[in-house]
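Archive entry. Fields below.
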Amino acid sequence: MTPDWIAVDWGTSQVRAWAMHGDTPLAVARSDAGMGTLSPGDFEAALLTLVQDWLPDSPIAVVICGMAGARQGWQEAPYASVPCAPDAGGCVRPQVHDPRLDVRILAGLKQDRPADVMRGEETQIAGVLAQDPRFDGVLCLPGTHTKWVQVSAGEVVSFRTSMTGEIFALLANQSVLRHGLSDGWDDAAFADAVAEAMARPEALAVRLFGLRAEGLLHGLSGPTARARLSGLLIGAELAALRPYWLGQRVAIIGDAPLCDTYAAALTAQGLAPQMIDASKATLSGLTAAHAKT
Amino acid sequence: MTPDWIAVDWGTSQVRAWAMHGDTPLAVARSDAGMGTLSPGDFEAALLTLVQDWLPDSPIAVVICGMAGARQGWQEAPYASVPCAPDAGGCVRPQVHDPRLDVRILAGLKQDRPADVMRGEETQIAGVLAQDPRFDGVLCLPGTHTKWVQVSAGEVVSFRTSMTGEIFALLANQSVLRHGLSDGWDDAAFADAVAEAMARPEALAVRLFGLRAEGLLHGLSGPTARARLSGLLIGAELAALRPYWLGQRVAIIGDAPLCDTYAAALTAQGLAPQMIDASKATLSGLTAAHAKT
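PREDICTED_STRUCTURE:
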């Protein structure tokens, strides 16, 4: 089979492309040419490097979601305002030099009050709805910026973003806490920290340095400190976002191991979250967008 | 006048030394040879570079507070356990090669439960008590790691550390929020953010990304975003540490502009914090330590 279109998920730090035949991926390619590493004039060359082996002689549709549409990306794509369908914003078509490329960058979503934005996750949400048009509940998309999304009647009703993943990485790798953290994990310490943070979320500011002091004074191990840090931050996130999961049907879209930590935290709250594979959701959403454009 | 001892405040990123005659500073020197940049074998040379012009032929006492006594420092100094006087830990005397140096590194303080540690601030607290032996109340020492210290009857009763300063720097300079922040300040935005964070401290996790979204969607200015970030984090700190300031006599030890932000936040809570100059407190504490050793 030869590809009849190309699907691309262009993130801040990475880009993935799939050679597609209808809804079937034939091949995948990835690189570190994320949006954060490129100027607007660099995107076409980066795309060609990634997909050159797949290009036919005639123009082929390339459907892109994610940060290629950011203000600092290839070309700014609009945001559709929620409440709306996740694909309500349509796409933009950046000018290209290579006549074999017919590029569409999908729009993101915005929320006026409280102010919030997403780029890329809307396509995963569209993918979930393509598979299950009657989905009614909350989607949790863990990542650098975790999204919590209320979905009903085929629309995104509201959403919020938590910087938990980015804050964890900064604290674990660059703050004074790095001296006491190491690879590995401790399920019980994670669960305890989630519970502590949810019981007194206002105490987060002083609990963090406690990880350092516990290491110096009481020999807290590196893996336990790492699991506690994750638990304190995810517990604080759950406390902030209680209306998004309390009594709700929740599905988590993403990859292990991060999604497993969110699942463990939510399971401890009495939920039974459904797990949805991130790549499948992305491809399903890009396929639906390709069928519409 | 010739110096009869040398006072040193050795921090993680900077070091300052004073040529002292009794309690009078004759000269000051500073460098970026902080503890974080040195191996244990490097400290003596770094000290000599800083104070060589002041050295007499006979041994001179060099009294050092701060991170030179950390595990990764020149030589680990003990921690005295609170409750205790701030100078209860005494000092260690690292071996030196230059016979003109008689070096003492002052001990820090530790708290068993909740686990906490300090190095350097105990000397500022001793300095405050040297000036005002009857001080009874709370000392707030803003910085990378802000300390809140309950002092009574000449002793440190308890203390807590908040990583607010370090988290602010990481978020402002290295997270996605950096795109929307710039130099400058907005007093009203700071005050509003402190009040918001104190009213719903559990919502911190989602308010942070709101700064980015407000910039993208509603044109939030760089200085206002910076003041809001500071206010959200200091408000969360005040919410976590309410027992340390509610109904207490509070004195703030430090330098402008950081101390002014803490003073503004506390004043909005109905307090009238006393302001104490950080360098004076440090020198007063080092002078008291020199008189005892």
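CURATOR_NOTE: Chain B has a mean pLDDT of 97.
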